Amino acid sequence: MTPPHPLNFIARSQSALPIPHLLRATFVHHRVRKIRYR
Asked: For residues 21 and 14, is the Cβ–Cβ distance under 8 A?
């Protein structure tokens, strides 16, 4: 029995989701910054 690894969990969640969570987070962050600076 192997303990639940954070990397394994992230990989499973990414494969389950259509868009990678990290990519989406950075995309939203850039949009928020753009709106705020404008």
From this structure: yes
